[in-house]
Write a structure and sequence with these properties.
This protein is of the alpha+beta class. The protein is built from ten helices and 16 strands. The strands form two sheets. It has a twelve-stranded antiparallel beta sheet. It has a four-stranded mixed beta sheet with strand order 15-14-13-16.
């Protein structure tokens, strides 16, 4: 039944695209007659897809009444007499909108028609969507087709399930890219909602990709635990991440021939990705780099030496409190707090007795590396390594002494 409905919805959307491809002007004039007030937002405040903002861990904007004309990017929302959003314009550093979407309401479904300008008078109908609702108003299905000037580019279909209490419990999502696209793939995801009493505890997403031939799970939303504050969450994550990294290294090394290691680097992205790349700096590779470059330094790992494939691994199975911490910090754009966490965990890992886990050199250290921050390796070491080890590294010539301002 689900597959038949998906095909039926997509057929209806293709017919919709054919019918409205050249009707931008009439839709624009009709919406002008119906709009009774305007509201604005610096980020998105509306989406037809069910529970869209929470499930992608993005704060839904609250519209305001004054147009932010000086902002480099903003949305304008037109409301009708029934207080429904019927028009959405996106502005970006120019007088005319870069996209204009019309929302059309009908019994048991809502349609989206989104256009983008092409030249002075023409508009491309680039997105056609439909949300199917039940008699009680709850979303049941959503389908969308995206178009480029070359034709149909991709399709999206979502099916929404509810538990016995009427709460959203499951979202099935499938995306297909058309053959002419350079990135052709089928992507399927199932979002599972878990409640604790009346409270949503977390949303877990199970991804499947035909292109990558892979399946993996990710916590895409997790609520705060009761009586939790920033300080208690930070402390809990600091301990759980230290434990997780230590155990991952132990398991990784147990499956390989032991090599003497001079450093361990935790590479991460504070802004986007949750995964952590753990790299082991092998002493033999540092010696080879120093021989070729005549430099005795920790720069060997980062800049010139090729990193062997067996010297690093990605941690994707991460502690739940770490995932919750990352979601919260990113939602609030507190990227420096994320960097502080990794620096503190690195300091903690520098105090671990690695004997029995790794065969380490006398100058072994642990430090963290944010892909986006692009800090110098020496600055990262100063942020992550305890002072007694810093003094040892400076005395041995491995680290330049930091000049105080």
């Amino acid at each position: 039944m689900g597959e038949n409905l998906r095909k039926q919805l997509l057929r209806e959307l293709r017919d919709r695209h054919t019918a409205f491809a050249q009707r931008f002007r009439s839709l624009d004039e009709e919406s002008d007659r119906q709009i009774v007030r305007w509201r604005y937002a610096l980020s998105s405040a509306f989406d037809l897809r069910a529970d869209y903002f929470r499930r992608i861990n993005t704060r839904q904007a609250v519209p305001f009444s004054t147009e932010p004309v000086s902002s480099p990017h903003y949305f304008a929302y037109g409301y009708d007499a029934q207080d429904r959003i019927i028009y959405i314009a996106s502005f970006a550093l120019q007088e005319l909108p870069v996209s204009a979407a019309f929302i059309l309401y009908a019994p048991n479904h809502v349609d989206l028609l989104e256009y983008s300008p092409m030249g002075s008078n023409a508009h491309l109908l680039g997105r056609v969507g439909r949300l199917i609702t039940a008699d009680d108003g709850k979303p049941r299905h959503y389908a969308e087709i995206a178009y480029t000037v070359m034709g149909e580019a991709s399709t999206t279909y979502e099916r929404y399930g509810y538990d016995d209490s009427g709460r959203l419990s499951h979202i099935h999502e499938a995306r297909h890219h058309s053959p002419f696209m350079s990135l052709r793939y089928t992507y399927v995801a199932d979002l599972l909602y878990r409640y604790e009493g009346d409270r949503l505890k977390h949303i877990t997403t199970r991804f499947r990709s035909s292109t990558l031939d892979s399946t993996y799970n990710s916590i895409t939303y997790q609520a705060h635990t009761r009586n939790e504050n920033d300080a208690t969450l930070f402390a809990a994550v600091r301990q759980s991440l230290k434990t997780a990294i230590t155990e991952h290294v132990r398991q990784y090394i147990a499956q390989r021939t032991s090599e003497k290691v001079y450093c361990l680097v935790m590479s991460y992205d504070a802004v986007v990705d949750d995964g952590i790349l753990v790299t082991l700096g092998y002493q033999k590779d540092r010696q080879h780099w120093e021989k070729d470059h005549y430099e005795y330094s920790y720069r060997a790992l980062r800049f010139d030496a090729p990193v062997p494939s067996d010297s690093h691994f990605t941690m994707s199975d991460l502690p739940p409190d770490f995932v919750r911490f990352m979601l919260q910090m990113r939602e609030e754009e507190r990227y420096q707090t994320i960097r502080t966490l990794f620096n503190q965990v690195a300091r903690d890992l520098n105090e671990v007795d690695w004997q029995g886990i790794l065969d380490v050199t006398d100058d072994f250290i642990v430090f963290a590396n944010d892909y986006e921050a692009l800090e110098d390796t020496h600055d990262e070491i100063y942020n992550c390594v305890p002072e007694d080890k810093i003094r040892m590294l400076v005395a041995s010539g491995l680290l330049d002494e930091r000049i105080q301002d």
